[in-house]
Write a structure and sequence with these properties.
about 500 residues; alpha+beta; five-stranded antiparallel sheet; three-stranded antiparallel sheet; 13 helices; about 15% strand; disordered N terminus; disordered C terminus
């Protein structure tokens, strides 16, 4: 997109920003959230699965047995767009703008990339979109950027970026077949007080924590200015082409994901489930112990039994004569019969069941209560219980689409808030892309007007969302379809009608 025209004196020092748990320079929490979503080896990945107390005793690892993170994210991924991302409803000022946006979405592969964005937004709490004009290609497109790659930024009071740093871990295959790892860093600074802004990018062996002043010479860049010759290293636009959407905005620099506030509750549910399973199943450890029977010559109880070599050999010989065969891969005092493991017991020793005799039903009830509390905090989980709710519905209650809409109300309210944030960000990114495409003369983007004249204003809405909002006050069950996939709702509605006697079972 051009060459560097003048030196980056303005970028010699770090910009000021607010730090904190969700500050502009806080990215560590994204990795934690991703571990919860991916489920596999959660606590091993988080490196606190094994706990030790002050006496040095080792506790068992937590297991990821009750983790609803993935389901909460997938609820929003299924509903945010209301269908195929490229099929959202679009209202524009002119047909030329509509055609240009349609072309932009095709260049951006919105049908596929939009699905990823609809997962990143609830998972991380943030979605960053970048408008890209690739050098040597007559295209402009929108690219999603993982939020942990946006390592610092500041915004003005309208939410537009005035400074942004992007750090992407990258690798390059060399001619000899080896892989060279490096960090691709971009520094964007908007112009102010009559001075031009700048964009510089670097390829270096450092990381996202490398200070700007310690970066090597830039590999390239351009001046951010609407005035000047593009061929002379000027961008042709004066804004930073990034947009930020938040899943839940509480006024911090970064957003909050769908399950981010509830990690401790998820950990507690996993801790409870792990302990119950551990006590009940003992996980491939011996579930029976040995206790001596009888007393010694003085009448005192015998000490716990011990296995020396002689007694172990005698036990093996005794059981071998009865047809049991000791597995050479196991301890010599164990045999396997019918898939079960048995201890070889010497004389005067009886087995003792090691599984504690506790009220497992009460423990399970406590775990269920913990999971219900999670469902109160994360109403998205109710979406996966609709089938059960339908199956247990009472015919006298005349359960209908209205009832399903009510049950799903809290989750749908959150989804609508996230959808509004997503669509607003995409609209802003579209306007930036239309401006850049027009500046660079990209085919299909010329002669469409200008941002300053208001020609690029447009509205994006969900094809299903707009219809269902209009039907919210309808009276018949068929008209009160919640914003769930229509085929799933149709099946649920048919079951409800049969249960309520409104149609014969078939």
């Amino acid at each position: 997109m051009g060459r560097t025209r003048n030196a980056p004196e303005a970028l010699a020092s770090e910009p000021y920003g607010i730090s904190g748990d969700y500050g502009p320079r806080s990215t560590d929490h994204y990795r934690v959230l991703a571990h919860y979503y991916r489920q596999s080896r959660l606590y091993e990945s988080l490196a606190y699965a094994i706990r030790r107390d002050t006496a040095g005793r080792q506790y068992s690892a937590l297991k990821n047995l009750r983790n609803p993170a993935e389901r909460a994210v997938e609820f929003h991924a299924a509903l945010l767009w209301g269908g195929d991302p490229a099929d959202v409803a679009l209202e524009t000022t002119t047909k030329e703008v509509a055609d240009a946006i349609d072309r932009l979405w095709r260049y951006s592969n919105l049908s596929a990339s939009g699905r990823i964005w609809s997962r990143w937004l609830p998972l991380y709490g943030d979605l960053f979109l970048k408008v890209v004009k690739p050098e040597g290609r007559d295209q402009v497109y929108i690219q999603g950027i993982r939020p942990d790659y946006i390592t610092d930024f500041t915004k003005d009071d309208r939410g537009y970026f005035t400074f942004l740093r992007l750090d992407i871990p990258s690798e390059r295959r060399l001619d000899d077949g080896t892989i060279r790892e490096y960090c691709h860093t971009e520094i964007w600074k908007k112009g102010q007080d009559g001075q031009d802004g700048q964009f510089l990018y670097y390829e270096h062996d450092g990381s996202s924590r490398t200070p700007i002043a310690s970066l090597p010479d830039p590999a390239g860049g351009m001046v951010l200015s609407a005035a000047g010759d593009i061929e002379d290293g000027v961008s042709g636009f004066d804004f930073i082409p990034f947009v930020h959407a938040k899943f839940r905005d509480v006024g911090d620099a970064r957003g909050i994901g769908v399950y981010a506030p509830y990690l401790e509750q998820i950990d507690e549910a996993n801790r409870m489930a792990t302990r119950l399973h551990e006590l009940l199943f003992r996980y491939d450890r011996a579930h029976r112990g040995l206790r001596s029977v009888g007393t010694d010559a003085s009448g005192a109880p015998l000490p716990p039994p011990s296995f020396d070599s002689a007694s172990r050999d005698a036990a093996v010989s005794y059981y071998a004569s009865a047809g049991y065969v000791a597995d050479a891969r196991r301890r010599p005092d164990e045999v396997e019969l019918g898939g079960e493991r048995y201890l070889l017991l010497p004389a005067s020793v009886e087995p003792v069941d090691l599984a504690p005799q506790i009220d497992y039903a009460s423990g399970l009830a406590l775990l269920d209560a913990q999971l219900k509390e999670l469902s109160q905090n994360m109403p998205e989980l109710v979406y996966y219980q609709i089938g059960q709710l339908i199956a247990t519905a009472s015919a006298q209650a005349a359960t209908s689409g209205v009832a399903l809409q009510t049950v799903m109300a809290a989750a749908l309210d959150r989804m609508r808030e996230a959808r509004a944030n997503l669509f607003a960000a995409l609209e802003r990114a579209d306007e930036m892309a239309l401006t850049i495409g027009s500046v660079y003369g990209v085919e299909g983007f010329t002669g469409i007007g200008s941002y300053e004249a208001g020609d690029f204003e447009h509205t994006i809405s969900s094809p299903e969302g707009s219809a269902s909002e209009a039907q919210a006050t309808a009276t018949t069950p068929q008209q009160n379809a919640p914003e769930v996939p229509q085929d799933a709702f149709a099946r649920a509605q048919a079951i409800l009608e049969r249960m309520n006697g409104s149609q014969p079972a078939g």
